[in-house]
Design goal:
It is built from five helices and eleven strands. By secondary structure, it is of the alpha/beta class. It has one domain: Spore Coat Polysaccharide Biosynthesis Protein SpsA, Chain A (Alpha-Beta Complex). The strands form three sheets. A seven-stranded mixed sheet has the order 5-4-1-6-10-7-11, sandwiched between helices. A two-stranded antiparallel sheet has the order 2-3. The longest helix is centred in the N-terminal third of the chain and has 14 residues. The two termini are about 25 Å apart.
Length: about 220
C-alpha cells in the first residue's frame, strides 16, 4: 500500500461573510494548515483542494470546483502520478480529528478494506421522511438510533474504488449521499470505523467560536507540528 492524503478545502465561506472558513485561524494556524500537519504525520503525498491557487509548503495544491466529485477526481491525479493507491479523504474544517481515528482507518486499509467510512452513533432520535406527501402529510418512519450513525471524515479509500463511486454519483440524480452509500449494491464492501464527537465540522460561526474555546482548553487536540 502507498498512502496519500487529500484535504478538501474548497468551501466558499458563504456563512462567514465570504471569508474562507478553511482559512480561519485557531491560534496562529489556519484550519487547513492544522489538518495538513496531521496528514503529514502519515504520508508525504498530500494534495490540498482549495479555492485559491497559492503555494502550500509540503503539499500540492489544486483548484477546487463547486462540484465536490470533480474536485476530488482532479485532486487524485497528482497522487496517482506518485504511485499512490490508497488515500485518506480529509476535510480542512475538521481540525480536531484524533490520531486514534486516523490510525484506525489506516489499519483497516492495511487489512484490505477498499472503502472505509467513519462516524459516531446518533445521540438523538432520527427519522426517515418520504418526500412524497399523502392526504395526512409526510410519510414518516422512526428508525432505531442504535443503527444510525452521524457520518464524518476522514475516510479511507482505494483510489480506483473512490473514482468508481464518484462516477456513479455523477450519473445519479441525487449525489448528496456519502460515496460509500453508492457502493451498497456493488461488488465492494464498505467498512465503518467508530468516529469521535470532538471531530465536529466547522460549518457555522457558532462552531468556530466553540472550536476556539476547545483549542485553548485542549491544545493537545491541535497535534501534528
Amino acid at each position: 500500500m502507498k498512502l496519500g492524503a487529500l484535504i478538501l478545502a474548497g468551501g466558499e465561506g458563504a456563512r462567514f461573510k465570504h471569508r474562507l472558513k478553511q482559512d480561519l485561524l485557531l491560534g496562529d494556524k489556519s484550519l487547513t494548515d492544522i489538518v495538513l500537519a496531521k496528514a503529514l504525520q502519515y504520508t508525504k503525498y498530500v494534495v490540498v483542494s482549495h479555492q485559491e491557487m497559492i503555494w502550500t509548503p509540503k503539499a500540492t495544491r489544486v483548484k477546487a470546483y463547486k462540484d465536490k466529485g470533480l474536485s476530488i477526481l482532479t485532486a487524485l491525479e497528482p497522487l496517482e502520478k506518485e504511485g499512490v493507491d490508497s488515500v485518506l479523504l480529509m476535510e480542512a474544517v475538521r481540525p480536531f480529528v484524533s490520531r486514534k481515528h486516523i490510525e484506525a482507518i489506516i489499519h483497516a486499509i492495511e487489512e484490505g478494506s477498499v472503502a472505509v467510512i467513519s462516524g459516531f452513533q446518533a445521540r438523538e432520535s432520527t427519522y426517515m421522511v418520504n418526500i412524497e406527501t399523502s392526504d395526512n402529510g409526510l410519510r414518516t418512519i422512526i428508525t432505531d438510533r442504535a443503527n444510525q450513525y452521524t457520518g464524518q471524515t476522514p475516510e479511507g479509500w482505494n483510489i480506483g474504488v473512490l473514482q468508481f463511486a464518484i462516477k456513479r454519483a455523477m450519473n445519479t440524480y441525487n449525489a448528496s449521499f456519502s460515496y460509500g452509500y453508492l457502493l451498497q449494491d456493488s461488488v465492494y464492501d464498505v467498512e465503518l470505523i467508530e468516529g469521535d464527537s470532538y471531530n465536529f465540522k466547522i460549518t457555522y460561526s457558532e462552531d468556530y467560536l466553540y472550536a476556539q474555546v476547545l483549542a485553548v482548553k485542549h491544545p493537545e487536540y491541535i497535534w501534528g507540528k
